[in-house]
Amino acid sequence: MSRFIDFNANNKDTHTEDEGHRLRVRSALLMVFFACLLLDFCSILYRLQVVEGAQWRANANYNVTQSETVDGVRGDILDRNGRVLVSNQLGYAVELDTSLMGEHTNEVLSQLLALCQEEGVEWSDTLPVSKQAPWTYTKEENLFAYISEGEDGKTQTLPTQLGKLAEEYEWVKSAETAQISAQELLEAMCESFSVETEELTPQVRELLGVLYEVALRQKEITYNTYTFATDVSISFITRVKELGLPGVSIVSSTSRVYNTTSAAHVLGRMGLISAEEWPTYQGLGYPMNAYVGKDGVELAFESYLHGASGTRLLETDENGAVISQQWQTEPQPGNHVVLTLDSDLQAHTEQLLADFVQKLDTSAGAAAVMLDMSGGVLALASYPTYDLSTYTEDYNDLLADPAKPLLNRATQGIYAPGSTFKMVTAVAGLTEGLITPSSTTYCSGIYTYYPDYQPRCWIYNQGGSHGTENVSEAIKDSCNIFFYDLGRRLGIDKLVEYATAFGLGNYTGIELPESKGTIAGPETTEKLGGVWYAGQTLSAAIGQDNNQFTPIQLANYVATLVNGGNRYETHLLKEVKSSDYTQVVYEYEPQLKATIDIDPEDLAAVKQGMYDLSQTASMAQYFADLPVSVGCKTGTAEVQGSDANATFVCFAPYDDPQVALCLVAEKGSAGGNLAALAASMLREYFAAEDNLGTTSQENTLLH
Ligand SMILES: [Zn+2]
Fold first, then answer.
1. How far is the CA of 28 from the centre of ligand 1 (A)?
2. Residues lining ligand 1 (ion), CB within 5 A?
3. pLDDT tens-digit readout, 54-109
4. How is the chain split among helix, strand and coil, in percent rounded to 5?
5. What is the 356 CA–ligand 1 centroid distance (Å)?
6. Ligand 1 centroid vs 473 CA: distance in angstroms?
7. Which domains does the chain have, with CATH numbers?
8. How far is the CA of 441 from the centre of ligand 1 (A)?
9. Quick one: pLDDT at residue 3?
10. What is the pTM of this model?
11. Is 345 exposed, middle or buried (0-12, 13-18, 19+ CB in 10 A)?
């Protein structure tokens, strides 16, 4: 939020060949644009504060200098090619100053709320009570108090913002032991805030919500105003002015604009500082009515995007009109965050997932991740997804949707890898010297090592066997017998060791919330309350048992493999640019997390198997006409009582890998079904690479 206009920010303009000329044209246009806006603001402020201010504030009688904290303009979020994905829009916000409403506060607020209802204007309301009867709390935990763990490991119970207020107004005796129903709370609030009513109606609840926000702010900061609603329409402003409500003012503000309908899980939302977040942001000097990142990139890179708040001194006369204002400290605009993401590829990938799942006609989800060789995220898609620009309106539907659109399946969904795990077993066997690229195992269709436990190869059910296979052939054919035998000889500890080294069952480091997943083995089984049997090693070796990983873990495992064993932390951040776009203020350095010492000949054998699979008839139909050759592996994991989940991993180009992919589809039957999607993603990515050629895209802003 800011009423501070920065002439250097937001300078996104059409790309032309001459950078200097473009900058001059852009600057001139922007100067004219902002000059017009400034005139408009001045005239509105003049009318509101000078012409009508006297009438509004007839009952008030004071003359005061007050300071207010003002946020800098938030930075933009761009993709790797300089496309602006999230920027700001100048607009108008409604601010309330209840000290100017006096004894008419409840009446003024009720009128304002009625107008908001009529005009469809949304306002901030964080009171955790339902909006209509039956009155219930909207959250179950941490309502009045929460448990906090100190650095010494000791826990203590602290009151929430509601808890503090409830103690102060004596709605409860103690926040820690509060036992008040939502209905009783609303009734107590009516009494404290002098709301005279026969019964609790939705209108009364709305009014209490605003009075609650006012009370919270009065408790924390000396300045009385708070931002009630943002991005309001001109027709709403006109009607507010017609009503002539004291203490209700319209100010210029900025709000987020989404220039893309994709990448919602990556970009994340903005929202008002919550009660729980306030202590942290207060310490960082944020004003209480500031908007902050709530999740995704907006939250992860809050410190880059936010800039620094400034302090303005306002002197007002007895009518409340501003006589003078000056900056004590000027707010600094935030820096711009450039992501590793390719927004065209991202949009394409999301469309592919949507089409795929809709064809299955299920309420299932799907995810896809493409990484570069140093862990940079090129695409990270989760289906179903949502629209950031209508998130607030859609929120209840999104929460209630059984397909869980708010869940980022690419980093938080955990899936059995199935046969895509077989390269872990292969590398472990080769590196530990149990097999060589040329040694063979015989597949008769049934594994007969144990007299009482004889699992089968998948091909046995189709009436066949694989015969003699080396490791490359076993990967191409996905022979279970080969990997049962190798897994048994390795033992579960070695399998766990190599899976861990590949980063499976652990956080990949991306700047978004992640699930950890689990690696199959005695430790996981015992944690789940079970007993580990030696025979389970066979299942673990082919990616079953308790092997459960996120799509981004699987993509990073393949990147690590074809990288020759170098595992990097995954990341979305490419670089941070100064608010005027002239300087790179931070550049992300790839973070090497671990190295698996894979012999080049061993790696060649594993990659060969993945390449040979891409050349089989079932796969070649998708990959044959790509501009690059690929290596791939399919996986299928049975899900009890449901269709199998499908997984698919691949890398390209085969000779000199640049990207690694993982796709997962719930109820997708078999991994091979995802090959067409992977091929389409690769086609999109390498066609774009061709178009970009060697021209540097640095400092180029595209629409
Ligand atoms: Zn076999």
1. 70
2. 443, 457, 466, 479, 481
3. 555 544 455 677 777 777 889 999 999 999 999 998 778 888 888 788 888 899 99
4. 40, 20, 40
5. 30
6. 10
7. 1-97+242-338 (3.90.1310.10), 100-224 (no CATH), 343-692 (3.40.710.10)
8. 9
9. 36
10. 0.74
11. buried
